[in-house]
Amino acid sequence: MNVVVVEKAESYRPEVVGPAIRRLLDPLGGMGAFVRPGERVLLKPNMLAAKEPERAVTTHPAVLREVIGLVREAGAVPLVGDSPGVGGIRRVAEKSGLLAVIEETGAELVPFDETVTVRGEGMFREFAIARPYLEADRLINLPKLKTHEMMTMTCAVKNLFGAVVGAAKAGWHLKAGADRELFARMLLEIYLLRTPDLTIVDGILAMEGNGPGSGDPHHAGLLLAGANAVAVDVIAAELAGIPKKLLWVERAAERLGLDGWDRTTIETRGVAVEEATLPPFRLPHLSDVQFGLPRCIKNRLRHYLTSRPCEIPGACKLCGICRDACPPRAIAIRDGRLHFDYHACIRCFCCRELCPEGALDVREGALMGIVKRFV
């Protein structure tokens, strides 16, 4: 059985979150069950973009602080690393409040700039993965519980996409991002290259709506932990009320037969699931009929069926971040406004995910309302 622990924590105040994380890890044997004295332990938070903690885009600094403290108590050396979606790691760490914690605790901020090419054992032949991610003695995954416009939910497995460095993320979106099933398969193959020793989910202030970067903060008051990231995702989705048919990573894990996808193999401890279950999260505009239509029809009508990003009039500052981040180069700036090539657009929504102004919205495909009546 895979054990996933659920705990409640109403705030990030030290006197609340500290004891809550200790209670969270106790049924798993405490931090000492996962790290040994002298080991270099990489903590991998969600550092998507330079946003304040109250925006719920990144892992909260209070959670990072407590985990660093527990790693030190176990006699290990804490490192903190990631490859942000936009901006340098130091800028993202500073804005999100994580840098202050790293400096105060004496942990080491590790940029993901050097890569190692690793041969895959699945559909994808090789991956360029951050060297610190692969070479750390232990890996502790610290995701944020959020909705996601492409994968419906981002949590434990999706957070590991940060091991792909910089512009290579756009390359993977271009290679696999036009097909959610394929993208989920790619995420799982990255997960299998280096499975985390422990996952601790920050769900105290989660995100719903059009996540992972433009959604709305949602006070869930929860922490989750487990050794199996897939199982942690399954329980996180259950607590958030997200139906399995929309969970692309979990469905792909089932097809691959990965340990953790089957709810009957997961034992929950801590707070009972029925006590922790939340009103269903408000989900993003995932209206692209990835299921329910034959592939041949879906491909031909894709432009008219799928939701697509669009500019909010007057909100865009023309910074060019969306244009530069777009994997298929489907965005241009002309005559003082954004222009989208929707036939080239792969609907990965990286533009919305990374826009610092929240200046992009989603427009539903012209035929989508009709099709929804029949699928």
TrEMBL record:
An annotated Gene Ontology molecular function: metal ion binding
Tree of life domain: Bacteria
Alphabetically ordered keywords of this record: 4Fe-4S, Iron, Iron-sulfur, Metal-binding
Domain 4Fe-4S ferredoxin-type: 307-335, 336-365
Record bears the keyword Iron-sulfur: yes
UniProt name for this protein: (4Fe-4S)-binding protein
Species assigned in the record: Geobacter pickeringii
